[in-house]
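Task: sequence design from structure.
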């Protein structure tokens, strides 16, 4: 990315992606703190990937002088709480949370990829978003394989988490 001021839509894109990766980091931290030892290894692997995503967007924000969302303290608390509560209920419920977040993020990243088609000068950002989308889909698939759809609370939790995730995306773009 160049050091010229980026258009507003690209600043929003990077801001919301950084906020999302920050939220994902906090969700996994909450899950890890409140899950069984057998779950921690898998969750830690997914957290490690989210930390790489977060570092990438943090770097872009610094290089391009993009401010973070003012709602980051809320995502700090809310993300952790979401992870902790779902892990406390049942491992499958925490995986339902992951499925829900990743399904929303898949669509979110795909919308960005569609928009970036019109800006070949930002192919580097497009490549990163595509890679991260694909990795988020791996998280979703892993959560499905771990039974995230197979708990009586899976569907209600997924509905709530999807709503929260969509609201977080909407708010983090501008605020």
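Answer:
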């Amino acid at each position: 990315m160049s050091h010229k001021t980026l258009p507003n839509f690209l600043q929003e894109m990077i801001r919301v992606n950084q906020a999302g990766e920050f939220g994902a980091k906090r969700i996994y931290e909450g899950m890890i703190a409140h899950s069984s030892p057998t779950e921690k290894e898998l969750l830690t692997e997914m957290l490690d990937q989210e930390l790489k995503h977060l570092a990438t967007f943090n770097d872009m924000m610094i290089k391009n002088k993009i401010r973070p969302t003012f709602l980051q303290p809320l995502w700090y608390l809310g993300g952790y709480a979401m992870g902790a509560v779902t892990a406390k209920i049942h491992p499958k419920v925490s995986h339902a949370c992951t499925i829900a977040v990743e399904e929303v993020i898949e669509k979110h990243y795909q919308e960005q990829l569609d928009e970036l088609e019109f800006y070949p000068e930002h192919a580097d950002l497009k490549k990163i978003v595509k890679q991260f989308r694909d990795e988020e889909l791996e998280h979703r698939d892993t959560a499905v394989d771990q039974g995230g759809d197979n708990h009586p609370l899976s569907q209600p939790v997924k509905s709530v988490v999807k709503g929260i995730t969509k609201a977080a995306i909407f708010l983090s773009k501008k605020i």
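The chain has a mean pLDDT of 94.
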